[in-house]
Amino acid sequence: xxxxxxxxxxxxxxxxxxxxxxxxxxxxxxxxxxxxxxxxxxxxxxxxxxxxxxxxxxxxxxxxxxxxxxxxxxxxxxxxxxxxxxxxxxxxxxxxxxxxxxxxxxxxxxxxxxxxxxxxxxxxxxxxxxxxxxxxxxxxxxxxxxxxxxxxxxxxxxxxxxxxxxxxxxxxxxxxxxxxxxxxxxxxxxxxxxxxxxxxxxxxxxxxxxxxxxxxxxxxxxxxxxxxxxxxxxxxxxxxxxxxxxxxxxxxxxxxxxxxxxxxxxxxxxxxxxxxxxxxxxxxxxxxxxxxxxxxxxxxxxxxxxxxxxxxxxx
Length: 315
Description:
Blueprint: H1 2-18, E1 30-34, H2 41-57, E2 61-65, H3 72-79, E3 87-92, H4 94-100, E4 113-122, E5 124-129, H5 137-146, E6 152-155, H6 161-173, E7 178-181, H7 188-193, E8 199-202, H8 207-211, E9 215-221, E10 245-252, H9 257-270, H10 274-282, E11 286-291, H11 292-313
Helix pairs in contact: 2-9, 2-10, 6-11
C-alpha cells in the first residue's frame, strides 16, 4: 500500500515537472504599460479595466505610465519587453499614426506587437459654439465648399486622428477649411471658446461645454451613435469616412498563443464590469468587444486609410 502511494506521488510529481510553464500562467503580477500621462481617458479606462481583469487572472495588474513623444516612449518599452505575458500595454491610434508623420521609430508600430483584445473607441466629434450659424454638419460643409479657406478648425495636432478625419471630410465633400493645430486636445476647447477657430474636431474635451450649452455637437466619428449623445449623427451615416480612435490591449510580438488567449478571455470578460462601463460612459467612450485577431485587422485598415489620407493632403 505504501509502495502504491509512493508510485502515485512520483507520477504526480513527474506530471507537474513536464507540465508546460505556460499552463501555470500567470503566477506573478502583470505590468500594464499606459503610454500616456495619468488622468487621461486611456489611463482612466485602462486602470478600471485592468482591475476587473484581475478577477479572471488571479494576479494583480500593475499600471505604469510611460508618457511622452506621442506614446512612442511607452510603445518602445513594450516592444522590447519579454513576450511572456507579464508585460502588456494599451494601444491608441497615435501609437501607429506617428510613423506616417515620418518619425523614425525603434519598432514597427503594427508588426512588433501581439494583439490581445479591443475595449473601446474614444468619441471624437465636431463641435461649434452654440451661437454658431451651423446647426448641422451638412450646413458646415456647404459653407466650406462655397467659401474655401474661410473657416478655421482646431485639433490636437497635425497627423492626429482628429486632423485626418477632417482631411477625409474635405476630400470627400469638396469643402476647404484651414487647420489650426493646437498643443494637444486640452487646448482645443479654449481655442473655440476664444474665437480663434470656427469649430473643433476633438475627443470629448467638448463634453462639459455641450452640457453647459456653450457648444453644440454636429457629428461624431464612431461606428454607431453614442449612447450619451443619441441625437448626434455619425460621419458614416452622413456619408463620410472617419478614422477610429482605437483603444486596445496589446503585448510584445511573439507572445505564446495560450497566454495570449488567457489574457484575451480575461480582458473581454472584464468589459462587463459595471465600474468599467460607468467610466467609459462618463468619458463618452463606447465599449467595443473584439478578439485580438480582429484588432490587428482593424488597425491595419485604419493605418492604410490614414496613409491614403496623408498622401492626398500632399497633392
